[in-house]
Amino acid sequence: MAQLSLVIISGLSGSGKSHALKVFEDAGYFCIDNLPPALLPTFVDLCNQQKGEIANVALGIDIRERVFFSDLVGILERVKGLGHSVQLLFLESREEVLVRRFSESRRPHPLLPHLPVLEGVRFEAQRLAELRRHADRVIDTSDLTVHELRDLLTKQFRQDPGEKKLTISLLTFGYKFGVPYDIDLLFDVRFLKNPYFVPDLKSLPGDDPRVRAFVLSNSDAVALIERLEGLLKFLIPQFEREPRSYLTIAIGCTGGRHRSVAVAGRLQEGLSAMGYDVALKHRDIHKS
User: Fold this and answer.
1) Residue 12 gets which letter from DSSP?
2) pTM of the model
């Protein structure tokens, strides 16, 4: 029996599930939206009857299928027990982002259409809390454009015949704007000297050469970079052996504009020199 590679896409309404399903469709997956979970074993059996013609499948599961939804985790375990690869992808966003997205589209929340959107968002998050705990991959789309989400999913779920490489992402942020949800490793660099208090540097971003020189020339920063590179040189091969397809490393400072940006830029250079493909995103660099 040919094994299926099955990706289940679920999560909060407004977090980008429909767009994610389109990304999988463009990547060559056989896609179905809103399949009742109870029909999943029957669907898998039908795919097997195609004698390998259907190998990669992405399914959108909507919480509005409330009659079937509660048993989804058990159904997925049954499918795994048949020898198929099953990954549960859960998309979410911060409350204020979801409320803004519904407001911009002038749509009510699908679960509580006659109440304020925020109540629907919180009600849905409560109902999905257990499913989220079972997810193989949680992606917070709050700060992602549709193009960035497409790139992220394409890198992590591409079906290349060659060896699958670990996707490494460096994310900088400011603690005063909140800690990112979707991260694997977190390093706090607020102990480094802060360019914010240097008048000539305060308004410049951390990727400006003058700010980089100020931050990275400090002896504490030199020691930090040396130790972080050594730690990651050890850790990354361990993550690759799990195996896993992604690793997100967050670097945080107070505002996310100076120290974290400078340190992450230097780390990207070091990891690239080790032969790793590293993406770099600055979440809060333009915030004040």
Assistant:
1) -
2) 0.61
